[in-house]
Amino acid sequence: LDLAPLLDERLIKLSNGETRKVLIAEAWARGPKTMLLDHPFTGLDTRSRSMLPGILKDIAAAGTRLLIATGPFDIPAEVTKVALVMDGAVTEVMDRKDFDPARHFHVSEKALDIDELSALLAGRTASGFDTIIRMTDVNIGYQGHKILEHVDWHVRPGDRWALMGPNGAGKSTLLSLVVGDNPQAYANDIVLFDRKRGTGESIWDIKRNTGFVSPEFFQYFPTQTYCLHAIESGFHDTVGLFRSSDPRLEAICKRWMALMGIADQAWKPLSLVKPDVQRLCLLARALVKNPALLVLDEPTQGLDAAQQRSFVHLVDAICERSDVTLVYVSHYREHIPLAVTKELTLEKGRIVSS
User: Which pLDDT value is given to residue 105?
Assistant: First the structure.
């Protein structure tokens, strides 16, 4: 699993994909009779995704039973039986050879209400910023270990960037500097929204202009937070709504939910809805305040092919009808919106293409 270089690293400092590989290794090290894998390919870079089938083959050859929850197009060759789950129930069980993902999982994409999207985006005025992000010779490290080295990056208003690189390349650390969550920003030359870090700006000044989505973000909301309240919290840049709901803001949130086809999920806990609903709720939370900068960190993670296409189509429509600046993180080029015209690729903490 290519974990040897990470053996002396603290788990909390690993990237999402590296953590997933560690958890797979930890589960296998137990020598289980049965191994349960929940979407094991999610969050892995291209190289790790290509390695995993061979590892699963070794596990199966050792006599371990595998039970894998995954998308219809990610079923490893070692699988011999397929159980279809729809609406919370097993609807059919069949031999792998009889399973046709295109036939069994055809999902029609809903038409997007472009007029309503334009109306929701119309409330935003031009930001007036000259610079959204500027990093000059940025270096980040912990206990002598370099995470980012000599990073120079300039993001101007209206730019649409793809941020790419393998697991552990430094993407998460770079994003932590962008969204204001990394204290080492003060020891570096970093400008966000025309203000150099450490010149009196607050974290709320940064969050006010930034909409952020990541695969793990939903886990930080209080357990019983309703989807509607999670979205409304975006107006206040809090992870959960810790004040009385504002009827005017709630109405805007409901319009975003209706646009995304999730209006019926409003009063369900965010922690209990399906991954695609969680992603759309978090995207709506990021958009309700019409931010100058939208940061989407692997937003299609855990979604099936049809859901991925719908999500990317929505992001493209937003970019086409607004001047929002976009930073879009993905391991896979096919998941990147057409609106993206610039690319920053990291490898071992250094920029390898820009």
Answer: 66
Four-residue CA torsion sign, 168, 173, 174, 176: positive
Amino acid identity of 110?
K
Please report the pLDDT score of residue 111 as a whole number. 82
Residue 213 contacts residue 188 (beta carbons within 8 Å): no
Residue 64 contacts residue 33 (beta carbons within 8 Å): yes
- 216-219-224 Cα angle (round to 5): 150
Per-residue model confidence (pLDDT) at position 334: 84
pTM above 0.70, yes or no: yes
Q: What is the pLDDT of residue 237?
A: 94
Q: Give the type of residue at 222.
A: P
Report whether pLDDT(109) > 70: no
Query: Mean pLDDT over residues 243-254, rounded?
Result: 96
HEC-encoded secondary structure of the chain: CCCHHHCCCCHHHCCHHHHHHHHHHHHHHCCCCEEEEECCCCCCCHHHHHHHHHHHHHHHHCCCEEEEECCCCCCCCCCCEEEEEECCEEEEEEEHHHCCHHHHCCCCCCCCCHHHHHHHHCCCCCCCCCCCEEEEEEEEEECCEEEEEEEEEEECCCCEEEEECCCCCCHHHHHHHHCCCCHHHHHCEEEECCEECCCCCCHHHHHHCEEEECCCHHHHCCCCCEHHHHHHHHHCCCCCCCCCCCHHHHHHHHHHHHHCCCHHHCCCEHHHCCHHHHHHHHHHHHHCCCCCEEEEECCCCCCCHHHHHHHHHHHHHHHHCCCCEEEEECCCHHHCCCCCCEEEEEECCEEEEC
